[in-house]
Design goal:
This protein is mainly α. It has one domain. It contains nine helices and no strands. The longest helix is centred in the last third of the chain and has 21 residues.
Length: 143
Amino acid sequence: MPTPYESARLNLELFALRREPELRRARAWFTAEFTPATFEELVAVAGGARNADFRMVLGYWDMAASLVTSGAVDGDAFRAAHGEVYLAFAKVHPFLAELRALTGEPGFCRHVEAVVLADPQAGAVLARRRAAALAAAERAAAG
């Protein structure tokens, strides 16, 4: 188990990585514009021109979460420092089983899934974040 200092240092390093320009751009798109309401929408967007952004964002969060699942970072400290992981996961969570089956990748987002779902409030948090994202997308589409 990492010391609190070690967890804090790694969390700060993960936060610094989020400022890398390409990842920041991909995260901005993923957060504000990627809000699939159906599995078909997810596949269309993730398989299109935004595929690299989709993979970059979820790949980053899965890599970051793997530091928790491997024991390098304390899970509670990670979840407290990186609330964005809930929103990222909320956008794919309803479609995860179908996405894993379609891609033949049963481990897709497994670290994110383990870390987020370890939160006793995960269901409520995911529901709130997904509802807020869908509502924002509807407002944006309405002009």
